[in-house]
Amino acid sequence: MSKLSIAVILFLGVVAGFLVWVRIAPSDPQRWHVDPQSATRPRSQNWAIAAPGEKHEAPVYRLAAGDLARAFDAFAAARPRTMRLAGTPEDGLMTYIVRSARIGYPDYVSVAIIDLGDGTSTLALFSRSRFGHGDRGVNRRRLARWLKDFAPA
Fold it and tell me: What share of the chain is helix, strand, coil (3-state, %, to 5)?
C-alpha cells in the first residue's frame, strides 16, 4: 500500500469516527436543560432565542400555563427527529434534542412556559447547536417555524 492510500484510509476513518460520535455522544441534561430566560448566551453564532423582551417573541396564548405546556410538549414530540431530553410539562421547562436529517447533528431546544395570569401564557425558547460555530440560521428558522406551526387548541 502506498503512503497516499494509507493517508486516505486514515482520513476516511477519522471522518467516519466523527460521524459516529455525533450520533452517539451522550447529552448531559445538566449542561443542556436550561431556562431560556436566564441561560448564558453562547459566544458562537449557532443559537437563537424567542422570549419576552427579546427581538423575537412567542405570541400570548389564551391557555393556562399547564395546558400550554402539555400542548407544546405534544407538538414538539411530533416534530421529526425530536425527543425530550429533560423536564416535563408539569415542570414548565422542557429541553428537546432535534437531530439534523442527514448526519444527525444534535441541536438542543429549551422551552419555558410563562404564566401571564388571567388564563393566558407564553413561551420562551432557546435553540442552540452542540457542534460547530455557525449554523447558517438553522436555529433561528427552527424557532420561527415552530412558533408559526404551533397552534394549540
Answer: 35, 30, 40
Q: What residue type is assigned to position 17 of the chain?
A: G
Distance CA 37, CA 25 (A): 27
CB 126 within 8 A of CB 46: no
pLDDT in tens, 67-88: 999 999 999 999 999 999 999 9
Burial group, residue 99, by CB count within 10 angstroms (0-12, 13-18, 19+): middle
Homologous superfamily (CATH) of 28-149 is: Fungal kinase associated-1 domain (3.30.310.220)
CA dist 150 and 75 (Å) reads: 7
